[in-house]
Amino acid sequence: MALEITALASGSKGNAVLITSGEKRLLIDCGVSASRLAAALAEAGTDFTAVKGILVTHEHDDHIRSIAAVSENYAVPVYANERTLNAVKRRTGMRGGYYYKDVNPFAVAGFEIKPFRISHDAVYPVGYSVSDGETRFVYATDLGYFSPTVMEAASGADVVMIESNHDVNMLIHGSYPQYLKQRILGTRGHLSNLSCAQAMIKIAETGTRKFILGHLSEQNNTYDLAFGTAMENMEKAGAQRGRDYEMVIATQYANAETVKANGR
Q: Could you tell me if 138 and 188 are in contact, meaning their C-beta atoms sit under 8 angstroms apart?
């Protein structure tokens, strides 16, 4: 059985990704309102009763906005590393939750979960590798830079969701205050379109053929710029879209196209 991935929301105003395997569901992050998330799940043909867990990447509001309400009102268990879980509880008042130490792997309802460290300005941010034993999905957004650790985690995955946050020129010449520009451009900030494209090339060389580009900035990026930068650089590397790889862009306000992990 192959995993299916649907980005329900992706961007600075909220993030949530649905992972499906048969009748089982997982969420990565819970950064939009509970009502919006319920509607997105319904559009994807499911609801909270099928969700077996929420994996938390880090404690920023756009990743945990409704986590207390969802976990408590729908009895969905929350999983995060110990430092992140404590930070989430302080910020949201959420009770309960399950923590793991550092980046120790664990299992949830038949899913094999392997967290990995990422570089971002949070207490202990992680990405996730999720497998059903046959196929594997890697989620890696909010990346200050594409580290060897992220490369190792993403290598050979069937589907990789990676950040394509901003166009550097738009950011530099945009309206953001200087401190925020420096934060985004720093090694604990966000990955640019060009850095994303360069990372895609490296990951594709390991056999990955399906990509989801996410966490696009509404102020400092466009769908066309993210898509075009990735495709242009992949073509320069000799990879043709449709023949050598597939690419979907996740958006802030609507479900993205579901990506099936099979059929590389």
A: no
In the chain, how many domains are there? 1
Tokens of 147: 């580290």
Question: Which of 120, 234, 222 lies closest to 171, judged by CA?
Answer: 222
Average pLDDT over residues 77-92: 97
Between CA 195 and CA 239 the distance in angstroms is 17
Output DSSP code: residue 50: G
Calculate mean pLDDT across residues 95-107.
96
Model pTM? 0.97
What gap in Å lies between CA 55 and CA 30, rounded to an integer?
9
Task: Find the CATH number of the domain harbouring 89.
Answer: 3.60.15.10
The CA distance from 97 to 261, in Å, is 29
* Non-local CB neighbours of 179 within 8 Å, separated by 6+ positions: none
- 244: domain range? 4-260
Structure-token match 């509001």, residue found? 61
Per-residue DSSP letter, 166: B
